[in-house]
Structures are given as structure tokens and as C-alpha cells.
Amino acid sequence: MKRNRIDLPLIALCSLLALAAVLFSATGGEKVAVVFWAIILGLAIVIVGSLLIGHRRHTKRDVLPAFTAPAIGLGIIVSVAATHWPLRVSYAMSRGAFDSIAQRVRAGEEVTPQRVGLVKIRRAEVYHNGIVCLWTGLNAGGYTGFVQCGPDYVPFNLWSIVRLDARWQFISED
Predict the structure, then answer these.
(1) What sign for the dihedral angle of Cα 19, 22, 23, 29?
(2) CA–centroid distance for 77 within its chain
């Protein structure tokens, strides 16, 4: 199979765009921001894929293989935006550490800033009703992070929420 110099860089770029979406979610990107960046990265993959297909047509080469990398990359980006699976995997791999930190915070210990898996906890506190909050983003408009409470009772003014399990939720305050 003959490869042209432009094929591999464009295929690599599709892979990097998909990886960027995965890493942004896995490191605690806010839900709406993840969807926004998925749209931008998805459009970039469509453009890169179009360039790759156009180049292959121009050089009179088979176009079908040029669909593979952009299609896989676009599929990954859409799955990240739709399900937030990288955040869920990142959380699942560090669940024990989250529980341990929550226990230490409840005991009054100062535990931040620190890294838990791929996520950096910037502030930890016990909310007024006993809910442990491990904040990853400290924006003036509202904090973003992990809160230890059930999925049916999240006493915050929410911008977004990703329900992780029966004990932890990833939220962004409004």
C-alpha cells in the first residue's frame, strides 16, 4: 500500500483531536465545556478528514481508507460528549482515594491542593449540610468538582451535573 507524506500527519492529527477530548473530560472538564469542545474538535476532524479525502481523490488513490481515522476520531469525540466516559473511568480508578480524602476532610484535615488520579483537587470543604466537596475549578461564577451526596439530592444551584454513582456526583455550580 502506497502512503503519501500527507496521510500520516492528517491521521495523527485526527487521533490527537480525539485524545484531547478524552483528556479534557478525564481531568475534570466541566460538562458543558466538554460538549462545547467536542463540537469544536469534531468540526476540526471533519475539516481534517475532508482534506485527507480531497488529497486522496486528487492523487487518484482509494478514498475509503481515508474515512477510517476521521470516523473513529469523530466517534470517540461524540461518545465523550454524550456519556462523559473518560471522567467516569478516571473517577472509578480513583474512587478509593476520593472516599479517603472525604473521610479526612470530615475529620477536619486540610488536604488540598492535591492530585487524585488525573484530577487536581484545588479546594476541599464540608458544605453546611455535611456534604464533602472536592473542588477542581474555583470560578467566581461557581465552583466545579466532586460532591459526596446521593444523585437525588444535590443541594446546589447547578449549571451541570454528571451522576457518577450513588455517593458521588460531578457538578458545576451556576
Answers:
(1) positive
(2) 10
Of 20, 3, 4, 15, give the one whose Cα is nearest residue 48. Answer: 15
| Backbone phi, psi, residue 165, to 5° | -165, -165
Question: Are the beta carbons of 118 and 127 closer than 8 angstroms?
Answer: no
For 33-42, the pLDDT digits (tens) are 999 999 999 9
38 neighbors 81 (Cβ within 8 angstroms): yes
Average pLDDT over the chain, rounded to whole? 90
Q: How far apart are CA 133 and CA 14, in angstroms?
A: 36
Find out whether 117 and 97 touch, Cβ atoms under 8 Å: yes
Q: pLDDT tens digit string along 132-173?
A: 999 999 988 889 999 999 888 888 888 999 999 999 999 999
User: How many degrees, rounded to 5, is the angle at CA 81 between CA 76 and CA 85?
Assistant: 70
Bridge partners, residue 116, by sequence: 119
* Lookup: cell for 138: 474555583
Specify the 3-state DSSP secondary structure of 155: coil
